[in-house]
Amino acid sequence: MALEIEEHPVESLSSGPKLCVKNFVWSEHEWPLINHDDFADGDDIPTISLEGNLSGKPCQDYDKVCQVMVTACEKWGFFKLVDHGVAIETVENVKVQLNELFDLPMDQKLKGARSTSLPLGYCASNPEYGQNLPWAEILQLLQSPQQVVAFARKVFGDQHQPFSNAMVKYMQALDKLGMKIFEMLAHGMGLPDDFFTKNFEEKEATMIRVNRYPPCPLPEKCLGVGSHSDPHTLTILLQDDVGGLQVLKSDNQWIGIRPVPNSFVINIGDTLEVTPLFFIPKQLIYTFEYWNVNLLSTLQAWTNGRLRSVVHRAVVNKEKHRLSVAYFLSPATSAIIDCPPQLIESSTNLRKYVSFTWGEFRKELLTQKRVVGKTALNRYLISP
């Protein structure tokens, strides 16, 4: 029966040559062993509330909340955020607009297709890589109102305003939230509140990536996104109520992250963001090899390994579409990645890295024939 299913055509993810289910079957060692809606009671990432800490004078437990946030990033690299201050109308509107986009006929969506030289825009999976294809439609745009409008005009013509306005308003709200999270992480580690945020005034590499995962007839062998750790500094993820995000724990066991209404999932991102996606060779953007590199994150380098970047994936299901909206915050190319002395003094470890800039690291990555982040990062290791 499974072999018959593998021969079924996949119209929703075929933007060129017609693909079959077998084109989306992953390597056997990647097949998920738990379903999209398997959530273990008592074994989930922490939930943190920002109630009373978003404007004006912080509430009395501000220091405690900051410490809890740091602890979550030390142990899990993930947490859920509620009472986050982003208006529910802003969130629901962007979800409606994105679902309407993905519901359009393929030929209309392809008017906003990414180019061969710039992986920004719409794509249906990634067929040119031949294997381990993501079971997902993908939209990827920079945090740029001009680029959002340009994309929307291609797809919607003169009727682009509802989509454009919803996206721009949403990204602006998430950028503000991201700065608050950075301030609280810095505060919780005893650093100046602007220690991270001062490096994020430019938005040249901050971006949004939207995945919509159609119902899949063979979810036990396919993945929406394979095992990876995000190539950015910080991710703010909006997911719907379907479920599918799974995180790899330190004991190498996968757990499902239960969706919570009106919440975001926050996670620490990878050093590979030093190379914004539009600088990475096209043939490596969506390969399993690229995304599965388990690297130290920027915040790990900034904190001498105190905060963690954790591997996660997206599984699919037979019955429902799932929408996932990831906002990736990235510093300016000129930002200097250097752990502050007070964190080294409070750590049992010696300084692990010399300081470096995003630009230097990007150049080091691009001199390699294959994107292998640890090899590039080793250049900055301090010998014991």
From TrEMBL:
Keywords: Iron, Metal-binding, Oxidoreductase. Residues 204-331 form the Fe2OG dioxygenase domain. It comes from the Eukaryota. InterPro entries: DIOX_N, IPNS-like_FE2OG_OXY, IPNS-like_sf, Iron_ascorbate_oxido_reductase, Oxoglu/Fe-dep_dioxygenase_dom. Coiled coil: none annotated. Belongs to the iron/ascorbate-dependent oxidoreductase family. This is Fe2OG dioxygenase domain-containing protein. It comes from Vitis vinifera.
